[in-house]
Each structure stands twice: as C-alpha cells, then as structure tokens.
Design goal:
Length: 181
C-alpha cells in the first residue's frame, strides 16, 4: 500500500465567517458579449466593438481602453441588395473616434448599418495564445488610390520574423472628402 499522509498542522487563523449576502440577481437581458460561452481574456492593448446604426452622419465612438497611439480599423456590415459603403473616420483620440459611412459608387443613400471596429495600441503584441503576434502601426500616406491606379505605400513590419495571416488597413482621417480604403 501507500504510506499514510504526514500529519497536518492546523491553521491557527480560522476562516472568516462567510458573507450572508446572497449573490445579486442576474440581469434578465445579459450583454451578448459578456454572456458568450467562452469569454476571451481582457486585453488592455486591443478591443473590438460593433457600432450600431451608422449612416452618413458622424457617429462618436468611445473605447473602453485608453490608448497612447490608437490604430483603428472598421468595416461596415455588408449584405445582399445593400449599396456599397466605406467607413470614413476622423478625430481619432486616446479613447474615442468618429465614423460615418460613405457610398463610393453611385451616391445612393446608405441607410443605417452596423460597423465592426477593432482598436489596437500601436506596436507589436504577443497574443494570449503565446504563439501568434499582432502588429499595429500608423503612417502618413502621400498617395491616394483610384480605379485603375493603386500606388503602393510600402511598409516594413517591425516584427519581420512573424508570419501574419491577416493585414488590415484604414484611412484614419477625413483630410480628403473623396473616399479611399
């Protein structure tokens, strides 16, 4: 057989009396993000959100985190029969930005749409899985692409050894009323 466990020394400090206050009643309409079956860990350098009802008017967005140099990328929800739309952005600050939609095609009204946004602090970040990296950076472009002419602004990755599977881009100003993506 196995030897008996060594005798334990009693803890001289007894456990405190349990709090008789019951747990609060859960919210009958839980937030869909926090009630997901598997919750992702909070990341202080990155967050995502869905901004509902965005149209041609400027919509202010406030972030949960505060950033030194935020990099914001947004895309509208697309669907069958909807006119084309691009997200325009301005007033990017440490914890807020403004977005609106613009039709890059025939100019017909866009209506209200959900816009999905991701905000990340500029830099190179090791993701919680300990294997993958995310990199965010800003730069000032001196070119604007258009149909038939998409000049490249070549960028060098800070973490050149990483194998990135997705690259996203966003014009984060409204310096030109003409659309660009």
């Amino acid at each position: 057989g196995t030897p008996p466990p060594p005798p334990s020394t009693p803890d001289p400090t007894p456990d405190p009396t349990p709090d008789p206050t019951p747990d609060p009643t859960p919210d009958p309409t839980p937030d869909p993000v926090t009630s997901a079956p598997v919750a992702a860990p909070a990341l202080s350098y990155m967050e995502s959100m869905v901004v509902a009802g965005v149209n041609e008017a400027w919509t202010p967005v406030t972030t949960d985190e505060t950033y030194v140099t935020p990099v914001v990328v947004c895309t509208p929800k697309y669907g069958s029969g909807l006119p084309p739309a691009v997200v325009r952005m301005r007033e990017v600050g440490t914890n807020s930005f403004e977005i609106r939609l613009q039709n890059p095609g025939d100019g017909s009204a866009i209506g209200n749409r959900d816009v999905h946004c991701m905000v990340m602090e500029e830099g190179v970040w090791l993701l919680p899985d300990g294997v993958h990296y995310a990199e965010a950076k800003t730069y000032t472009s001196t070119t604007t692409g258009r149909k038939g002419s998409y000049p490249a602004d070549v960028q060098v990755l800070e973490n050149s050894g990483a194998n990135y599977n997705v690259v996203l881009g966003q014009v984060m100003t409204f310096n030109d009323a003409g659309w660009s993506v």
